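It is time I had a proper look at our fold encoding. Can you supply me with one protein entry, sequence and fold together? It will help me judge whether the discrete encoding reads sensibly. Leave the record below and I will have a look:
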Amino acid sequence: MGTTQLESVPEPKYLHLKTVLSEALDSEFSVGEILPNERDLAARFGVARATLRQALEQLELEGRLQRRRGVGTTVAPPRMGVSLGAGPHTWPGGSEDAWQPVDCTAAVPPAAVADALETGRDESVHIVRRSRVSQGRPVAAELLYVPQSSVSELSAIDAPSGAARARAVLRELRRVELERQENAVELGSAGADDAKELDRLPGAPVLVVTTRFVSAGRAAALSVATYRADTCRLTFGDAGGVEIHTGPEQRAS
């Protein structure tokens, strides 16, 4: 790789460097490729490593780069859209739902979840864990909290544990008439468990989508889905629900 010196520009040097790096990503690197180390990149562009880090951080926030534990900084794949729309409401686990059930346990949920479900704070609920994968990498993790009263016909004999139990809970939940669903979105940071499941560093930015499913005027389930902020973008429209778009075009959040 040759050496490229930056000319004097009125904007902050790291922003100009970000533009130069972005062009290099388009022309010299492919998705998943590991970038040279910071020392080599700083030497190539004739900048201090502190300036380089600022530029890399901006590109990571824009979804162009990913910092992977034990690997380094890699070129990120195109982002996917998390669409929140006003279309038909559906229960999770339907035929077009790409989430994969992982397991299901019965436990007392966090107090905030119990309040949202309007259950007692010491009342056990079904906790379905699901995951979402794109291009072989985890992009989202979900915890779906279902009060036992919402799936009162569930048989422990038919599906005693694991993913089979999760599918059974989802199947019984879809028998209930869905009145509406309420979505809320916030930007957060990955805790230790989310970071491990999503292959991110603790503290990495995540997009948290909370969905409250209402039936007969009461909360029948609550979903807390955590998306990697570097792989997803938030969109609003009439598509309804929360879905992931996997088209070839690049998307940014």
